[in-house]
């Protein structure tokens, strides 16, 4: 079987290419456009962003001439431009999934509701969808995957994002017949659940990043969300609410994931975890019952046994997304998807004392952060999923700092796509690939 690179070269030799539609021309989107511009057999033919000048700049930075770029919100003009070999910049995200000449859609917005809507519209328009929006995935990914299966398209997370990189290690381990004991990632800053855009502002300016985005990493929400996606894909669960947040080096990992009764740090196997001190890497802890295999793993310095570590020291975020695009289009296979359904949840926690009548803001904001629980524990307390948080949520009653916000604590004043899909997911539960009727029964959003 040809490798992805050779498949793309062959596609280009045939005068064809994978036509990519992108929503979001921020840091991730800009990098992806530039990367794809140097690849064979793939082209970002249309990109949408609410600030269309960001799209124009992204294309120009990738080396595309202004003469080859059409700026329009008109569907007919956009379609004609793509068919004529131009690339399109638009402020209308619906054009991306609505054009016939788009094969794969990528969501790089980072906004849960927007991502849910993009995925929904892509699937109903029979487009493969690649999500660089893990917050949307952990909230409504199970129902979106089932809809995509029913529609005959691929719903997938992205290579290069930490969940995708972890999944590649997991698939490698499982394919070789190892027992996978734990899966995880490094955290590259100390956990500070009080982090907000103001406290993150100086560092964000130095890194030329969004203060809100940086705060979502510092307060742990992004880590919880990422490991939630891994849990839903693999069936592995946090050892405790919020995980342990252990500190150590790669060489320490095999011993960490022995159970406590055997001198380790965890109470059970098949867990997701984050480690302070190994960022930006990801890891899988593996084990074998075969004496010869263990001898070779020890010789190869993967650990001293019985646990061994597979460690990848990098992940290239959106620069690797083209690999997921190609895998979806060429092989019809996801990089990572919620194969196990919703088995974990990232619950919403008050970042400060919240009074009756207060409104929540958003992930990485001033009011809330997320912590991972098992879905069973989350359901028992009726916790508000972090992916549903938006500015239209009003506190029905006061909640103290550090307490989990429950559904009964809030009033949601406006229905959004992600809320409707979540209700659909709660109503239908598991849907077989054959039951395509669910798509017709779902609400128009």
UniProtKB/TrEMBL annotation:
It holds the Pfam family DRL_cat. SUPFAM superfamilies: NAD(P)-binding Rossmann-fold domains. Residues 160-321 form the Oxidoreductase DRL-like catalytic domain. It comes from the Bacteria. Gene3D superfamilies: NAD(P)-binding Rossmann-like Domain. This is Putative homoserine dehydrogenase-like protein.
């Amino acid at each position: 079987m040809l490798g992805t690179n050779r498949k793309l070269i062959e596609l280009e030799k045939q005068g064809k290419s994978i036509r990519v539609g992108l929503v979001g021309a921020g840091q991730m989107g800009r990098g992806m456009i530039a990367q794809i511009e140097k690849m064979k057999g793939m082209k970002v033919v249309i990109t949408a962003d609410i600030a269309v000048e960001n799209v124009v700049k992204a294309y120009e930075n990738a080396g595309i001439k202004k003469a080859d770029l059409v700026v329009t919100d008109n569907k007919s003009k956009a379609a004609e431009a793509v068919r004529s070999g131009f690339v399109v910049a638009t402020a209308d995200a619906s054009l991306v999934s609505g054009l016939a000449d788009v094969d794969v859609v990528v969501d790089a917005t980072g906004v849960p509701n927007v991502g849910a809507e993009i995925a929904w519209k892509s699937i109903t328009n029979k487009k493969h969808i690649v999500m660089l929006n893990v917050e949307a995935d952990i909230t409504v990914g199970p129902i979106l995957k089932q809809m995509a299966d029913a529609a005959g398209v691929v719903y997938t997370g992205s290579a290069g994002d930490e969940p995708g990189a972890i999944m590649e290690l997991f698939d490698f381990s499982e394919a070789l017949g190892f027992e996978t004991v734990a899966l995880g990632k490094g955290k590259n800053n100390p956990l500070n659940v009080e982090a907000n855009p103001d406290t993150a502002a100086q560092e964000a300016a130095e890194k030329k990043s969004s203060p809100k985005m940086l705060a979502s990493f510092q307060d742990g929400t992004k880590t919880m969300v990422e490991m939630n996606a891994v849990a839903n894909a693999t069936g592995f669960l946090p050892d405790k609410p919020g995980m342990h947040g252990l500190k150590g080096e790669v060489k320490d990992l095999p011993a960490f994931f022995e159970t406590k009764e055997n001198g380790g740090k965890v109470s059970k196997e098949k867990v997701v975890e984050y480690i302070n001190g190994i960022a930006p890497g990801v890891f899988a802890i593996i084990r074998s019952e075969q004496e010869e295999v263990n001898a070779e793993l020890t010789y190869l310095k993967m650990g001293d046994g019985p646990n061994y570590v597979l460690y990848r020291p990098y992940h290239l975020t959106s620069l690797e997304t083209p690999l997921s695009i190609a895998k979806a289009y060429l092989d019809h296979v996801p990089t990572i998807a919620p194969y196990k359904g919703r088995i974990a949840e990232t619950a919403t926690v008050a970042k400060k004392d919240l009074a009756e009548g207060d409104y929540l803001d958003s992930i990485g904001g001033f009011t809330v952060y997320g912590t991972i629980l098992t879905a069973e524990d989350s359901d028992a307390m009726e916790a508000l999923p972090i992916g549903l948080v938006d500015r239209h949520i009003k506190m029905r009653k006061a909640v103290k700092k550090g307490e989990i916000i429950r559904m009964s604590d809030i009033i949601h004043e406006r229905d959004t796509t992600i809320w409707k899909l979540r209700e659909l997911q709660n109503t239908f539960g598991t849907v077989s690939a054959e039951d395509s009727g669910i798509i017709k029964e779902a609400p128009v959003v």
